[in-house]
Specification:
CATH topology of the largest domain: Methylamine Dehydrogenase, Chain H
Shape: globular
Largest sheet: 5 strands, antiparallel
CATH class of the largest domain: Mainly Beta
Order of helices and strands: EEEEEEEEEEEEEEEEEEEEEEEEEEEEE
CATH architecture of the largest domain: 7 Propeller
Amino acid sequence: MTGTGAIVHIGGYTAEAGGRAEGIVAARRDPVTGALTPLGTAAVTPAPSFLVRHPTLPVLYAVNELADGRVSAFRVAADGDLAPLGVRPTGGAEPCHLAVTPDGGHLVVANYGGGSLAVFPLDGDGAPGERTDLVRHEGHGADPRRQERAHCHMVSPGPAGGPLLAVDLGTDSVYRYDLDAATGRLVPRAPRLRTPAGTGPRHLARHPDGRRCWLVGELDATVTGYDLTDDGALHQRVRVDASGRTGHVQPSEVAVDPRGRFLYVGNRGVGTVAVFALAGAVPELVAEVDTGGEWPRHFALTGEHLYVADERADMIRIFRVDPDTGVPEPLGEPVPVPSPTCVLP
């Protein structure tokens, strides 16, 4: 049997969402070489576009990014196989992101189409119970096509019990909430952060020190750095371009390496991962690496390897990250995976 630490799960778009995946794919990862060996579809489920694991239990959660949004829970076997644990409606269209609170007690889901956040209590087995809250964002942004209404794109629980941050592309906002563990309800903290008009904030990455974070703008192709206070307030510090390339740039995922030295940004359109050094006051672009496709939707850093999911090129590209420079170098051939949208070590 293989330890679950060597198993990677890959979410994707199925036919229901215009994609070619059948569900959630399992793959075996060699932690030394970084090699990835697909093991087949571990769970047939519609449009599992984003995945997350429970912090202490062998349970995986997937959004089902459908017009009638759902969230699915699975028990993870040692070989990566997934057994259904429960399905719940999210109360909104096209859920695209989800997170488990650090105490493992609640699951929070971002409904992109619904512009809302849904909360589910988790029982001792990690199964989601009846939804305890649904908070809808109101308003719109400057872009009449992409920001005609609220589009919640990410939820980021505070790692030490601090406020949950909810990133909304449609309203150019980051909202703060406290989660009442007893009732499972979200209590808003005013004021919300408003980004410059037309930013279209998508995802944020927290620095390991807990005092900084970076927010990517999907619509204006920027990365904005913020100081992050204990009460979850964000104070803008710096703003840079997400890519040094010309052409259509649409940032996707953003992450900080575990040592807090480098920031990584996936750029769709130009098909790159940009690497920024974080030693100075302003993130410095030190490299921008071609991924071999044009649409790097998501990536994951684990150990000394970077795994990039290219949604439109039907592949996972593997890189070794130089520990000194932070720059990824491609390894071997891309691994064929249909319509991948999330890679979860």
